[in-house]
Request: fold
Amino acid sequence: MVVVAAGAVSDTSGPSGGSWLQRFGYRLVHSRHALWGLTLASFLESTVVPIPLEALLIPLMQARRRQLFLLAALALLGCLLGASVGYGAGLWLFDAFGDQLLEWFANPAQFERARTAMADHGFWFVLSVGVTPVPFQTAMLVAGATGYSFALFMLASALARGLRYFGLALLVYWAGDQAEALFRRHTRWVSVAVLVLVVGVFLLV
Reply:
């Protein structure tokens, strides 16, 4: 996923200005259905709609600071539901509809590289993909298509995405209204640092 910033929740232009994502984020922040809407957005982000979830999640957390960790948990829940669907698509549908799935989720070259990485590193491959702002769909599809352990796949997904979403909650708790600007400014370096940490743990284990 390409990480972009949503407009600030205090933007008085409201849903009539900015990109469609900013308008959707504005409506979500002010909606009484924000909690299940976030869960649905996270599910869609991890399956068929490559939206940058952070662009919705950070403004929502800023507006609902008493629910920071609930929002992180719901984002994780939606992601894991989507991950299970993607895994199932790879497990049960890839043999019959592999070409169509690759057109939807990835390209053949990406899939083959991911298949090799899954065969070589398995759990650590899923974990490394999950902590970085890159599409997760290829990892889900490959895990299912190769018959990788569903339990280990879900564990790696939960650890990786939990680190991201609860990390955002801590960022908002600590930085408040500056969280979005800090995330936008440092997200690449944070992603690299977390990836290096994952690789370091892998080498030590």
In short: The CA atoms of residues 20 and 141 lie 28 Å apart. DSSP finds nine helices and no strands in the chain. Residues 68-105 form the longest helix (38 residues).
